[in-house]
Structure formats: C-alpha cells, structure tokens
Amino acid sequence: MDLLCDTLMLEEILLRMKPKPLLRLRATSRRYNALVLNPGFAGRYWPRAGVFLQPAVEHRQGAPPPSVPRFLAAVPALQAADHHVPAGLDLAKDGMTIVHSSAGGLLLCSRRLPTRPAARYYVFNPVTRQRRALPKLRGLCYKPQCGLLTVAGDGARFQVVVIEEWQVEDVFLELKIFSSDTGRWRAKNLSLSVSVSRSLFLPFGHDFGRQPVLGPSGAAYWIQRGYDGDEVAIAFQSPTNSLRIIDLPERVVGGGSDRCIIGERPGGGGLRFARADAAALEVWDSDAMEGRAWALAHRVGIAELLGQSADDAARRRHHRSVKPVGFHPTDVDVVFLALPSGSGVAAYSTKHGIMDLQCTYNCFAAPADVFPYVHPPYPIQIPAIQNLTLELPRKRKADDGTFFETKNGTSSLKR
C-alpha cells in the first residue's frame, strides 16, 4: 500500500507542484525528502536547458528599463511529452530584469544596469526562485562590461568576476573578483599583452564594443581582428583568471565578426563556431579548447535555409540574411539564428534542417546577448557566503507575499 501511495504521489501530485512548495514538502519528513530526490522523479521534474536571450541594455542615464530576458528552450515537445514539467522560466516575478551570466543552474543577475561607480549583483536560481545578494561593488573606474559566474564542482562555493569596460589605450583588463569563501570583492589586473621574442605586443585589434559570448565553463569569448588581418577569438577563463588566443577556421578569414559566433560544444570538451553570410551558414567544431583542427560540421545555403527560390535569393542578397546568436547548451543539433526582416529568433536543427520560431525579438534592430543555461536533474541551493555583511536589509514582498529579504541577502519563506 505504501508503494502504491508513493507512486501516486510521484505521478499525480508532486509532478504538478511548483518548486517552492515542493522544497517545503521535502523538509517535512524523510519520506517526502526521499520522494523528491527519487532519481526517476528528479530526472523528469528539475532539468531545464536552453538559453536566456537578454535584449540590449542602454548604457546611458535615463534609458528605459530593459525588457525581461526570454528563456528559449528549443524543445516545445517537452511539454507535450510530459505536460507536468514547465519548459519556461520567468524572471519578472522576482524583479531580475538583467541576466549577466549563468553556471551550475544559477544566474548572475541584477535589477537594473550596473553603472559606475557602484553595482549590485544577485546570484539567483530561476527554478526555485531562491536568491542571494552580493555586497555592493564599489570603486569602479568604468562601467562593467560583463560579469562571469562560476560554481565549484561540489556546489559549495562560487566566484563572480566583473570585467570593466575596456578602453582603446588599455593593455590590461580591470577585474573585480568576488568569492563566496571570503565574502569580499578584490581588484586584479590581467595583462592583454603576449610575450614573443622578449617583446610584448597585442595580437589583436582593440575593438571590444560587442558583448562577449559566455560559455557554461565560465569563459567569455570575443571575436577580434588580428593585426595580420585574420580574425581570432579571445577567451577569458574566469576560474583561473587567464587569457588565451584561439585561431578560427581558415575559411572565415575576413568574414566580419558581426556574423560570427564562438562558444563551447554541448557537453564540454571542445569549441563550436558558426558563421553566416549572404550565401551560406556554416557550423564548425573543434575537439580542443584552443581551437585546433577545426572540422566543418554543417553547411547550408541561405536560400535553402529560408525556403527561397534562386530568384528570390538573388533579389534579397543585398538584405541582411541570418545571424547566428547562440548554441543550445545540451543539444548539439540546435543553433539559434536571428532571422531577416526582424522576424525573430529561431532554433535551427542541423540534423533535420528545420527551424522553430522561439520569439519575435528583432536582433538586427537592437542586439541581444545570449546566455546558455542548464539546471541539473536535482534541486540545487545557492552556496552560502562567508563573512557577509550588507549595508541595509531591505524587505521585498513578492507577488504571493511569501518571500522577504533578510540581513544576509537571502530570500526566506514567511512562516
């Protein structure tokens, strides 16, 4: 009888519950805790995988508030296969309007654009809606260009690296680093120069206007034009605070960085690169994180991709075609593409050759950043911050009135 009751609980009740009350139930008894952590149940309930599409944020004072990030799962069949599992994630209820990075099922967010001379960041779980406020970051010389979150493999600690806006004359990166082990921010400089034959030089042109592409490993990637005319990628690895240069496939030399994107292969263990022009879309893979031995994984003509005839393709050649904007973090088959004429963003299957429209945001009129996100098949908690002191505890009432912010910056349940 107990086995039958547990089966009914798993199939008919727990799968229909939202994460917050489910975690409450887990804390009431060992039996319910075992049910929530049941591998079969957890594998169906907790996983989410996709990308957050963050509409461009203006850096000028008085700019309108940014649009809430959109979560693109690229698997509409998920709900059809199991209607109990929600595919979407909504950040609006918690006021997290800007996503900066993601790692280990957590997000680095803010409620408004961080500006000089101070910034406030939050580590946020968009599934359970748990959040933890970081101490205010002060002493910025320039506006933050990006923030990178990394979570330790054991899930017991995390690190945030904020890179300040790069200037043309800079030969080093200005980094602000926060560790949950210390509960404090510290400053660090990282040289952009490379030593060759006892001399220092910058192996790339200084053009950092575009936001970087972020990978699940905590790396940030910029595509730049080298001084020899070839395009290269710069990778900053936040866990080790190191910088490296990545060579791109030869066929994309001089192709223009506005139509290129580089990222990490789903599942790790290499890099993925995509490029589009008026003629074709190409996807390349490399087994090495240094970008050696690139192999062409997929190529499709733009006319075929958009379902156009040869005459239509010739007439539209002078218009913007498609632009790769991101890779799915777990599905090696999916590339996210911005479509022409402001049609929106679609998930393109390289295996089946079909596109599925994800949203109608126009990435050509106003750029957007794409952040890969994966929530593992088990509930995760935000690591505790040691020695944390916040200036002023501010109560925040959620829509349902169940959450408030405590002195240590966590979100707690009202009893």
UniProtKB/TrEMBL annotation:
It comes from the Eukaryota. Pfam families: b-prop_At3g26010-like, F-box. Residues 9-41 form the F-box domain. Residues 97-337 form the F-box protein At3g26010-like beta-propeller domain. This is F-box domain-containing protein. It comes from Urochloa decumbens. The lineage of its organism: Eukaryota, Viridiplantae, Streptophyta, Embryophyta, Tracheophyta.
